[in-house]
Amino acid sequence: GQPMLSLFARGCAPPSRDSTIAFRTDADGFLSFLDALAGNELRSKTGGLVAASDVEDHDLSWSIYFADPYGNALELTTYEYDAVRRRLN
Question: Distance (Å, rounded) from C-alpha 40 to C-alpha 16?
Fold first, then answer.
């Protein structure tokens, strides 16, 4: 229930799954983000446009992954699983 930051030491390497910066939100924030995707040209790490259909179901949480203009991996996630499931299904 409180903000957290985890930092892990690693050698200099290109961004990878291990260097994703994740932001946790509630179901309403997550769903609002998905609704706003169509008007914001967010890109994936591979350069493709990110759409609401790119949401990943982790059976405990929902996440969507995208990259900033410098290629840094970002994730928005929520653990309010059932509230999001009802809206997406």
Answer: 24
